[in-house]
C-alpha cells in the first residue's frame, strides 16, 4: 500500500490555447472554486454505515466535485432551447455547450464547463473514474454522465455532461451542491490517493492539448490511447477488454 499523488487544477472554461492564460482563471483562487472533498468527509457521522469498513474504504477514496455557482435551467424541448437564470449571455456562451442531438424525444443532455477540472499524476497506470453523485437525480433533476480512462497515459480535462431526469421540471443547482464524483484506481486497491492543488506546468499543458488534438486527426486512435497499459494492467481491464468499442 502506498500514497499516490494526484495533482489537479480547475477552470471556469476550456483549457486556453495559450499557456499564459492558464493563470487568468479565478476558480484557482482560494474560496472561489470549491476544492474536491471525499464522500467520507461529507457524510453524517451518525449514519448507520459510517463505521462500516467496507463503505469507508471506498468513501475515503471517492471525491466530490461541487458547483461553484448558482444556476437554474429550464428546458424548452419544443423549440430545443434552454432558459438559464442567474448568469448572463457572456457566461452562458463560455460555460455551456450543446452538442448536436442534445435534445431529443427520449433524452436531454447538457454539457457545462464550470467547473472544468484537470487531474494528472506522475505514477504509472492510475485510472480515473467519473460517476454520478447519488443525490442529484432527486435534488437537482440531473444525472451526470460517467466514464473512466487511464489518467497516466491520457491527461485531459473532465467534461461535465448530464442527462436531465424530467425535462418538464427545472434543473436547480446551488453553489456547493455536488455535481459528480471522481475516484482513482491503481493495481493495489488499498493504495491511498492524495489530491494536491498545483498550477499546470508547461509540459503538462502541452500534453493535454496534444491529447485533445488526436481525435480531430485520427478519430479512433484516442480510444486506444485512453486505455493504454504501462507495464502493469488496469485492475478493471476485464470490464472493457475485447469490447466492440476497442476495435476502433
Structure explained in plain terms:
The protein has helices at residues 53-59, 89-95, 136-139, 202-217, 221-225; strands spanning 3-11, 37-38, 62-66, 71-76, 81-85, 96-97, 109-112, 116-120, 127-132, 142-144, 147-150, 160-164, 171-173, 178-185, 192-197. The protein is an alpha+beta fold and 248 residues long. It has a five-stranded antiparallel sheet, with no helix packed on it. The chain is globular, with a radius of gyration of 19 Å. The chain starts with a strand and ends in a 23-residue tail after the last helix.
Order of helices and strands: EEHEEEHEEEEHEEEEEEHH
**The CATH architecture:** Distorted Sandwich
Structural class: alpha+beta
Rg from Cα: 19 Å
Q: What is the CA-CA span between the terminal residues?
A: 35 Å
How many domains? The number is: 1
Helix content estimate: 10-25%
How many strands, what sense, and barrel or not for the largest sheet?
5 strands, antiparallel
Oligomer: single chain
CATH superfamily: Deoxyuridine triphosphatase (dUTPase)
Topology of this protein?
Elements: E1 3-11, E2 37-38, H1 53-59, E3 62-66, E4 71-76, E5 81-85, H2 89-95, E6 96-97, E7 109-112, E8 116-120, E9 127-132, H3 136-139, E10 142-144, E11 147-150, E12 160-164, E13 171-173, E14 178-185, E15 192-197, H4 202-217, H5 221-225
Parallel strand pairs: 1-15
Antiparallel strand pairs: 1-8, 2-3, 3-14, 4-5, 4-13, 6-7, 7-12, 9-11, 9-14, 10-12
Q: What keywords describe this structure?
A:
five-stranded antiparallel β-sheet, globular, alpha+beta, four-stranded antiparallel β-sheet, Deoxyuridine 5'-Triphosphate Nucleotidohydrolase, Chain A, 248 residues
Amino acid at each position: 500500500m502506498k500514497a499516490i499523488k494526484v495533482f489537479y487544477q480547475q477552470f471556469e472554461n476550456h483549457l486556453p490555447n495559450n499557456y499564459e492564460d492558464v493563470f487568468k482563471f479565478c476558480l484557482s483562487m482560494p474560496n472561489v472554486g470549491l476544492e474536491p472533498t471525499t464522500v467520507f468527509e461529507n457524510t453524517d457521522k451518525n449514519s448507520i454505515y459510517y463505521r462500516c469498513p467496507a463503505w469507508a474504504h471506498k468513501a475515503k477514496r471517492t471525491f466530490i466535485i461541487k458547483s461553484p455557482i448558482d444556476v437554474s435551467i429550464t428546458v424548452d424541448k419544443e423549440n430545443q432551447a434552454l432558459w438559464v437564470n442567474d448568469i448572463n449571455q457572456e457566461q452562458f456562451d463560455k460555460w455551456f455547450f450543446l452538442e448536436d442531438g442534445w435534445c431529443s424525444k427520449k433524452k436531454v443532455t447538457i454539457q457545462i464547463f464550470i467547473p472544468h477540472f484537470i487531474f494528472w499524476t506522475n505514477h504509472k497506470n492510475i485510472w480515473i473514474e467519473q460517476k454520478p453523485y447519488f443525490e442529484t437525480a432527486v435534488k437537482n433533476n440531473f444525472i451526470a454522465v460517467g466514464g473512466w480512462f487511464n489518467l497516466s497515459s491520457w491527461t485531459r480535462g473532465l467534461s461535465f455532461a448530464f442527462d436531465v431526469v424530467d425535462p418538464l421540471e427545472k434543473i436547480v443547482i446551488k453553489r456547493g451542491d455536488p455535481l459528480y464524483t471522481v475516484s482513482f484506481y491503481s493495481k493495489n486497491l488499498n493504495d491511498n490517493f492524495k489530491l494536491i492543488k498545483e498550477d499546470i506546468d508547461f509540459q503538462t499543458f502541452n500534453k493535454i492539448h496534444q491529447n485533445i488534438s488526436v481525435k480531430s486527426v485520427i478519430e479512433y486512435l484516442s480510444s486506444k490511447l485512453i486505455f493504454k497499459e504501462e507495464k502493469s494492467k488496469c485492475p478493471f481491464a476485464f470490464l472493457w477488454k475485447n469490447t466492440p468499442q476497442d476495435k476502433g
